[in-house]
Amino acid sequence: MTVESEAAVEETEAPEPKRDLAQLWVCGFLAVLGILVIVDASRLGGFSASNDPIGPKPVPILLGVLLFAVAALYALDVLRGGHGEDEGKHAGDHYDWKTIGLLCAVFIANALLIDWLGWVISGSLLFWGAAIVLGSRRYFLALAAGVVLGLATFYGFAIGLGLGLPAGILQGIL
Amino acid sequence: MDNLNSLLDGFAAILTPGNLLIALIGVTIGTAVGMLPGLGTAMAIALLLPITYGMEPTQAFIMFGGIFYGGMYGGSTTAILLNTPGQSSSVVTVLEGFKMAKNGRGGQALATAAIGSFVAGTIATIALVFVTPITVDFAIGLGAPEYFAIMMLALVATASVLGSSRIRGFASLLVGLVIGTIGIDAVTGQQRLTYGVPELANGIDIVVVAVGAFAVGEALWTAARRKNGGDEIIPVGRVWMGKSDWRRSWGPWLRGSALGFPFGAVPAGGAEVPTFLSYVTERRLSKHKKEFGNGAIEGVAGPEAANNASAAGTLVPMLALGLPCNATAAVMLAAFQTYGIQPGPLLFEKESALVWTLIAGLFVGNAMLLVLNMPLIPMWVKLLRIPKPYLFAGILFFASMGAYATSGQAFELYILIVLGLIGLAMRRFGIPMLPMIVGVILGPMAERQARMSLQLSGGDLSGLIGGPVSWTVYAIVAVIALWPLVSLVRRRATREKEPVAA
């Protein structure tokens, strides 16, 4: 099945080669990852003991080499007009980078605030912020839902099931 | 006989009000996440894993089993009513199911999917009861080199067999293997790939990887394409089947079960291939060939049964060998490890009660799903009306909660968002997710087995190859790895012939 579909893609692409060159970023990522892995591995002590003949070094080195190989073959595939599982249907899509950026910002705000404000406040803000960023215009409803979720999860999971969620500045109040 | 007695003990353990309630919660969550497009059972279990830290392992696994089976039922509902597969294994169901719904036969499509899932789930779980102990007997004699070989097979097979592009599968696998290497080396205590960050010394939790790639990645993916419009839901009438529907459905159910189970039980067999095969078989065997393409009930009954049977099949290698063959099994394996339980041949000896309660729970959950799904489908469909902003805000909320709870450090949240961005990129570039998840779990296990083999052979590299069992396994790996070369040669040959023919 695999072979047939690849062949089919090639056939349809033959008259008009439309390459999705953005995929080269992936190759770059793999190559950088390969460098990181090999640099780290070269720093490891290459000793071998009787109970561990090869030590911790060979596996990362092998992974680094394979990463370079895959990055190179991947680049070759991209240049020949190769596509992923979806057959490149997302290649020309318009992406809403502003929404992604805002969503990441909301997410990181939660990470920064969680230990100080506690889960109930930071989690509620996360829900509220994410809902607004994703297009909800009912500000109060979203906030109310966030607060309810925050309180319910804190009482249910942190106090009820012993999950490690921080109380933060509300310590002693909740 | 021993096994049947243990299974009866399992049933006795599950038929308590508390455990039944947990099974009910499991199947409910499973159906819900299976229905909602973009959510999956692997994500649901990963999200719930931290919450279950306070529960008994047995109860946690009853719930996970319920989610696993529930997801299969839910996926078919979305496929039939929304023309969108809720799960990748429901892709084939869409073909005939949506056409049936459009022709006003949605109720019958849903009924044959639900009853077929029940029949297949029951048959396949019975097969699981008999096949798993045999696999265990075989596996118990295997040593470290054989395990290493089987793990290599699982890694190579998931990366190259599933999906349409091998190179992307391997890229995903390598990223997973690198993530799995991060942290303190278990043998020498040296830190690998931590680059001096103390929080990385304990490695990256598989829960964080799964939640980041599946849940956060999906939320970002939705954010990225926010303006791409919504879906239309077809209303359903009463979910029932007439006499002729029954007559046309039972054959496909049985054949689908027979196709699905073995594929599920083989590393990287998956649910996609058997559902597709079942569809093709039913089209060939049907007396109503003209209906295919316009809503033939056989085309829903067969693939749905195959889908459920393969889900049960994937539990065989997971329980008997500790090998995950789909994303849900991978996360369940991680759950076993979190509880300090090592799946594999010894599991049936050491944790006999847990395993048999889990299997009994599958039977119970399957029966619950039939009851829950047949009359209540119109209610479930309302779930599809939850506005996306709230749905994904909720997912980010639970994802953050779960990730923070794995270690109690805000650092996990930064890793989560990085993995979410990786997940976003993988969706954009069509890179399969499963090899990465399997790599994170199996990578460290394979390295341990390899080093153990070399330890046994005193550093002699031949110790890695082992005996006849691993030779066979390596031969299969070689065939899988070299297959593209064969087809390349064949294609070249036909290309050279073409100009001559012209």
Automatic annotation (TrEMBL), chain A:
InterPro entries in the cross-refs: DUF1468
Phosphoprotein among keywords: no
Keywords: Membrane, Transmembrane, Transmembrane helix
Listed name of the protein: Tricarboxylic transport membrane protein
Transmembrane segment boundaries: 21-39, 59-79, 100-119, 139-165
Residues making up the signal peptide according to the UniProt record: none
DUF1468 domain mapped to chain residues: 25-166
Short name of one Pfam family: TctB
From TrEMBL, chain B:
InterPro entries (UniProt xref): DUF112_TM
DUF112 domain: residues covered: 20-437
Transmembrane segments: 20-49, 109-132, 138-162, 169-188, 200-221, 318-341, 353-377, 413-442, 463-486
UniProtKB keywords: Membrane, Transmembrane, Transmembrane helix
UniProt signal peptide: none
Pfam families noted in UniProt: TctA
Superkingdom of the source species: Bacteria
Protein name: Tricarboxylic transport membrane protein
